[in-house]
Amino acid sequence: MHLRAYLYLIIATLCWGGNAVVGKLAVGHVSPMMLTFWRWFFAVIIITAISIPYLKRDWPLVKKNWPLLALLGIVGYTLFNVLLYSAVHYTTAINVVIEQAGIPFLIFLANFILFRIKVSLAQILGFSLTLVGVALTASHGDLATLLSLSVNFGDGLMLIAVVAYTVYTILLRWRPPIDWRTLMAVPAFFALLASLPLVIWEQARSASQWPDASGWAAALYTAIFASLVAQILYIKGIEHIGANRAGLFINLVPVFGTLLSVAIIGEDLQLFHILALALALGGIAIAEKGKPAA
Predict the structure, then answer these.
(1) 294 in any annotated domain
(2) In a domain, 122, yes or no
(3) pTM value?
(4) What DSSP line would sit under 152-218, residue for residue?
(5) What is the pLDDT of residues 24-69, one digit of tens each?
(6) Parent domain of 24
(7) Total domain count for the chain?
(8) How do residues 136-148 score in pLDDT, each as one tens digit?
């Protein structure tokens, strides 16, 4: 049993479930690109403060692998969150968190196609259930809209974000043998750099909004919990049980996010949301129980 890994991943997904809710609460208090910038500004300060000895020790490997570390930060940290914070302007927080359940399916698919990682029939069934749940959410309970490619703009942005985070998770396969603090600090720095031109672009469109008190609170939550705590625990979870099995726990993001959205924001819980959650939970249970022997 990998109880410690399971605990890491549960806490990480709780923090990520809160990320979409905070992003929704931040609407009208800070613009998406500005929120992303300040999120990584604070995160870089915090993680660097506790990482200096490890950064010095790992510096030769950092210099050798900086393109990969930069890509991790740009794709997994900046692109994913810019899309998420933009998506909640057009769709509900519940939809955003449930659509993240598509990440494990794409991780599974990419690992199978690229690396021929062994999978079981139970895992295929579990991931398929998850995919149906995501489709149900993206189509707002009407799967026929997918056939006509009629999907809410916000839901479309979130589906692109799902692909971005899948790429990030797969790229972690090639992470250099550096301390987890270094693995957080360097990509976070590149995430901050990548957010700068986005803020400038947002400002040029006269769409930029400087954070008010609620906006600053949102930035601090995302920096501490959604960035540092969640990312670190997710990385450590992958180290213990691998990307395929760790990715399954992302299915808990919609569970926590839905509960928080209803309790904090007061969003309406629709029947298709309940069905999608049931499919996500059923998928994680079937796939985890039916994982192939190592």
Answers:
(1) no
(2) yes
(3) 0.81
(4) -HHHHHHHHHHHHHHHHHHHGGG--S--HHHHHHHHHHHHHHHHHHHHHHHHHTT------HHHHHH
(5) 899 999 999 999 999 999 999 999 998 999 999 999 999 999 999 9
(6) 3-289
(7) 1
(8) 766 666 666 655 5
